[in-house]
Amino acid sequence: MSNEPTQRATPVHRRGRDLLTVLILLIAVTAMALVAYGQVAASRITRAQAELAPVSDGVSNRVATAHLYLVQALGGDPTVMVANDVFRRLAEATRLVDSALIGGPSVDGTLIHAAKDPAVVEDLRLLAAQVESFTSQASSRWLHRESTGQIGTRWDREFDGLFTKVVGQTDRLSADLQRTETRARQRIQFVNIAVLGTLATLFVGVAVFARRTRRTIIAKNEELETRVNDRTAALALSEARTTAIVNTAVDAIITVDDRAIIRSINPATERIFGYEPSELLGANVDVLMTDEDQAQHDAHIHRYLSTGRSRILGVGRETTAKRKDGTVIPIDISVSEAKVGEDRMFVGLIRDITERKRVEAELQAAKAAAEEAATHDPLTGLWNHNRIIEILMEELSRSGRQGSPVSLAMVDLDHFKHVNDTHGHVVGDEVLREVAARLQRAIRLYDAVGRFGGEEFMVVLPGSEGEAAELAAERIRDEISRQPVITSCGALQVTASLGVVTRMGEIVHDATALLVAADTALYDAKAAGRDRVTIASMLTS
Fold first, then answer.
1. What backbone torsions phi and psi does residue 503 show, to the nearest 5 degrees?
2. Domain 250-357 coded CATH 3.30.450.20
3. Whether 130 contacts 167, CB under 8 Å
4. Please, which residues have CB within 8 angstroms of residue 83's CB and are 6 or more apart in sequence?
5. Does the domain spanning 11-210 belong to CATH 1.20.140.10?
6. Average of pLDDT values for 173-200?
7. Domain residues of the chain, as ranges?
8. What is the biggest distance separating any 2 CA atoms in the chain, rounded to whole angstroms?
9. pLDDT tens-digit series, residues 102-119
10. pLDDT of 502-520, one tens digit each?
């Protein structure tokens, strides 16, 4: 017989046990409902993130593409269909933002639920306003181009600023979406952990209350062992996931200790910098730096460890790095600090931005080419007709404010039609290019020369009058005719006739009078035998 005392369950014990059992069951059902709700909420968050995440990328891509096409169209590219290539994309960007704000189908028909988070809603409203401003500015520039034939370069800085704001706002929207999802998942995770913890505590209490026998202790030990094994498996799975993320990341991820020694790298580091892992692990991180950064790095580390102040921790910045073969590449880098036990570690996230820099350079080159095409004659490289007229107007305005003279010389090549008819337009173009070069050599640094049309050129001579203007014109005539022009058909003697006029006194912004007077003087020079300079009567107020 057993010596252990037997215990009979009294009605009070039974009622208490039954009540506790019911309570446990209710709490368990509630907990499972909360967990299920958390899973549904997580699914909704994931769906909302999946719906809203493409909005920022879609808006950024469409605005960037529209910006590039508009620059090409303003530069005179006939292949750009402005309505389709520019304003259709801007309209799609607006529809994307509106769909995210109020809910509805996206531009591709995908249903988007309206954003709920206040920060995301505010980001979308700001983005909508910036896209609207960008569209308005683009429309104004194009209408100005259509009505005047001019690009309106004075708007470049404002227009580029609007484009930068739109791109920056899409980045903020992406960041806020990520933060919103993270916060929501953390809340759900907290609820799940609290529920599971409560359940575990209650089940342990029931086990202690119901059975205090060795079998219960063994069962409890087995349960704990199972939980430990599950936790170990979960940690292993989490570690495997983290390793997979690090190994598949497109950016280089490097950890270094407080002595700047590299402790770990990911495969992207090998691809970007060209090193084998054995060559980097244990090496100083300055092996990846340019000579200039190497000279300053140790001092930065020492200053941070001594004072705790850093200008780069937690802040992304652009700089350069050096590959194994010595190639210097542009990178975007952000550095953060982490504690692993008692050790201090620094984690660097590095992105190779070579391709981005190449695209930026191409955009800048396209912009410069558009500006060049808008103001320069493509054959001679001189100012074109519109720009030389603008320069004349500017000098007339300056003359009116300062009371200084300004002279205008119209230059026309003699018998140029004969050159084209005899030798062809290819040779004629060679002559025009050489004459343009001689004109540039003959004028002063602050004079301006442009191709007025055909074989006719205009020279603006600020501050010149009377004899000085005549001497400048004679210098131009002599430079053109002094030496034959060497062409693919041989040497050709080229001469020019010039008509010169000077404007003095208070100016009304009207260049027509000067042009008419200079043309009249030019015709007089032609009539007098060509290869000469004729001075028109001086124009005063």
1. -115, 130
2. yes
3. no
4. none
5. no
6. 77
7. 11-210, 250-357, 376-535
8. 148
9. 876 766 656 666 677 788
10. 986 554 447 888 999 999 9
- Residue 458 and residue 138: Cα distance in Å, rounded? 33
The 3-class SS string of 244-259 reads: HHHHHCCCEEEEEECC
In the 3-class helix/strand/coil scheme, how is 310-377 assigned residue by residue? CCCECCCEEEEEECCCCCEEEEEEEEEEEEECCEEEEEEEEEECHHHHHHHHHHHHHHHHHHHHHHEC
Tell me the residue type at 362. Answer: E
Q: How far from chain centre, in Å, is Cα 297?
A: 29
Structure tokens that stand for 246 in this block: 């690090």
Residue 492: which H helix or E strand, with range?
A: strand 490-492
Structure tokens at 266: 């990911």
Domains 250-357 and 376-535 share a fold: no
Q: For 244-264, how does the pLDDT look when each residue is reduced to its tens digit (9 = 90+)? A: 787 778 889 998 887 888 989
> What is the predicted pLDDT for the residue at 148?
81
Distances in whole angstroms, Cα of residue 15 to Cα of each of 20, 22, 202, 208, 291: 8, 10, 18, 17, 81
Whole-model pTM above 0.70? no
Contact at 8 Å (CB) between 253 and 269? Answer: yes
Judge residue 504's burial from the number of C-beta atoms within 10 Å of its C-beta, 0-12 exposed, 13-18 middle, 19 or more buried: middle
Q: Which of 181, 228, 210, 207 is nearest to 53 (CA)?
A: 181
Tokens, residue 380: 């001679």
Structure tokens at 288: 């990846």
Distance from C-alpha of 378 to C-alpha of 337, rounded to nearest angstrom: 56
At 133, phi and psi to the nearest 5?
-65, -45
CATH topology of domain 376-535: Alpha-Beta Plaits (3.30.70)
